[in-house]
C-alpha cells in the first residue's frame, strides 16, 4: 500500500539516439529482414539496453520512433502508421481499442511488463497526512489536495499515458460505480476532481521530463512540489527518497503490449514473435524488472520485494472514445488550474515568406483550426490567458486574450485574426523583447497568481539587439522567485542560435523544441503538453 522508495542511480529519461525520427509521420526506414519498425511511447527509451541484448540473442533489431498516445492512436486509425511501421508499442492499447478505425488495424499483442500509476510523496508528508498507518482512497487524497495539504506534478493526459491514466483512475474511483465512466458520471464527480487538480503545480509532456523538473525544483526553496503522480517504475528510479501511495480503491496500470499491425509483412510477424518470446522469457523478465523497475508480465517470475503492494485493484476504463475525449476536454476547460502563456515571437525580416506563413499556421492551429484529435486537445483551453508579443528590432505592444470557458469561439477568432495579420520586417532583438515580456507577466501574476505560467520563445536567427545572452542571464538572476521559476520553451527555427537557446531553457527550467526539420505547428502542439 505505502512504501519507501529505494534510490536509484539513474532517472528514466529519453535516450537521444534510440529513435531515427522525432516525427511519427515519417517512417524510420524501409522494411528489412531482422528489423522491427516500431511506433512507440517515449518512456520505452529506457528499454534500449534490453533491446540491444535482444538483438544479439535473436537477430531482431528494433527501430523506434516516439510519439504521444493520442497522436499515435490517430496515426494508427488513419492508416499512416502502416506507411513505415510494423508494430506499435505504447504503455496501453486501451485508448486505441476504443477507436474503431485503430482497433481493426491492431494485430497480435504481447504484454511485456506492467507499471501502475501511483502517487509519490516524501515520507514526512505521508506521516503528516496520516497515510503511513492505514489504507487511503482517492476520495481522501482528493480532499487533502483540495485543502492544499500537498502539491504534486502530473503529465498532460492528452499526450502522456501516465497523466491520462491518473485522470481516468481518479475519476473512476471517485465515481464509485464500479463500472466504466460515461459523461454523466464525469459531471457528477467534477467538483471533487477540481479539488484534486487544484493541487497540481507542475505539468509536463513526458514522464521522464516531469521527474527531472521535480528534481530541479527540489533544489530551489520556494519552488518545490511535494510529490508526483507517475508510473511506479519512474518513481522507483528517482534518486530522492519518496514514499509510494497505492490508493486502496484502485489504480490504472500500464501493461506495455508490443502489438503487431495487421498490415505487417510475414517477415515482420516472424520478427515480432521471436522478439516477444525472448522478452517474455523468465531471465529477460527478471532483468526488465531489475533495470526498469517495471513488474514482470509472466506469472512464473516472482515479484521483487521493492514492489510492496503485490495485488492491485484495477479501476474500470471508460467504455467509449467519446467518454475519454470528454474527460480530457473537461480536465483542460474546467478542472485543472488554468494556464497563462506568453508567446515571444520573432517577426523580423528573415521571417518573410514561408517562415512567417508557418508561424501564422502554428498559431491558427491552436485556435481550433487543426481539427485532428491531437489538434483539438492542444487548442487554447477555456480560462487560459494568451499573450502574443511579436518582436523585430524591438518588441511590439503585447496583445492579451483570455479564453472564456463557456463560449471560447469569439476570443479564439480574435487570436486567429491577429495571427494571420502578422508580418515580417526589421531586426532580431531577442533578449530585450524577452525581458520586456516579464513586465507583462509580472502584472498578470500580481492580479491572478494561481495559474500555470510559461513563455514560448520562437526565433529563426541570431540576436541583433543591443542586449545579449549575458545581459539576459544577469537580468534573470535578479528576478523574484515567482518570475524566475517561469519555464521558457525556446523553439529552434531557421538559423536559431542553438547554444544560446539551450542556455535560456536551462536557466529557466524549460526545454528546447526543434522545428528546423518539422513544421512550427508540430513544435507548438508539442509544447502544449508542458503548459
Automatic annotation (TrEMBL):
The organism's place on the tree of life at top rank: Bacteria
SUPFAM superfamilies: Periplasmic binding protein-like II, vWA-like
Ranges for domain VWFA: 340-531
SMART domains: VWA (SM00327)
Gene3D superfamilies xrefs: Periplasmic binding protein-like II (3.40.190.10), von Willebrand factor, type A domain (3.40.50.410)
InterPro entries attached to this UniProt entry: VWF_A (IPR002035), vWFA_dom_sf (IPR036465)
Protein name: Ca-activated chloride channel family protein
Taxonomic source organism: Lentzea albidocapillata subsp. violacea
